[in-house]
Amino acid sequence: MLISLVAVLTVVAAQAPALPAPQGPLSVLVAPPDATGTPSHIVDFAREHVTAQLESRGVRVIRMDNVIRKMPATKRRALLRCKRTEAPCIEWLGTASQAEVVLVTELVRKPQGYRAGLKTHAAKDGALIAENFVSDVLEDSLLDALTQALDVVLPATLRALRPPPPPRIDDVPPPTRVTRPGPSDPGSQPTPVPSEPALTQTSSSARRWAWLPAAGGVVLAGVGTVFYLKAKDRYDTLETGGADIALRDSDALVSQGKNAQTVSRVAFGLGAAGLVAGAVMFLWPEDDPPAKVVPSAAVMSGGAMVGLSGTWP
Question: Hey, how many other C-beta atoms are within 10 angstroms of the C-beta on 203?
Fold first, then answer.
């Protein structure tokens, strides 16, 4: 029984997929630059600049000096003189350095300036991975041009040899299931929100304008008082003057007194109607529209008549 269990576990372990080994930093061999017509001091500066830039970006740099240090002189010369533009030379450099990538710097001197750039090759087969070149570069701008080329070449190389891992199944959220309500299940109905009661109007429109007819009534009452005093003055003149007043003057005083008395009565009547209309508008209930009350006055022989007409509740 124990032997069978061990055999089953062995088979399952053999069929299980092997986990990928954790990848460390990218290892790059900085090969001798391919420099044609370039002074040696510029070549050395360019190689050290590229090496420093790679190390600052987390790349494990393998220097050519450390690779050829333990080689015999004949093999060393042959390795340094191999054509770095051919795949066999790149494979030989990769085998000797145990690097993943072989980086070749190119510096070609021309009449208009330098042609500066970088190329990365896969060490296992010498295949080109990425390259970038800048033409017509002045001598004092060579280092900047190499930095610009490295900004293009290194990300492309990392994408080719260090692709991002695929997302794990555990990290993918499960799909959301949406349940539709059946014919017998109407689903959850939204709870009605009670509406707030409307604000009650505190005052009616008729009450706001009640002062207008009341003010007119007060003004008319004042006018009536003035003409009443004028008519009384004419009456007193006739009473106190007696026979001393000429006939023509007495007729004029009588006519003036009658006219003033008539105007006074009409003014008093309209003033009273205005006061009544203002009181009705002020005291009218707020719920119902105000009554359309129209004051009226009429002058007749021997007096005047005052009334109100309109719609009453």
Answer: 8
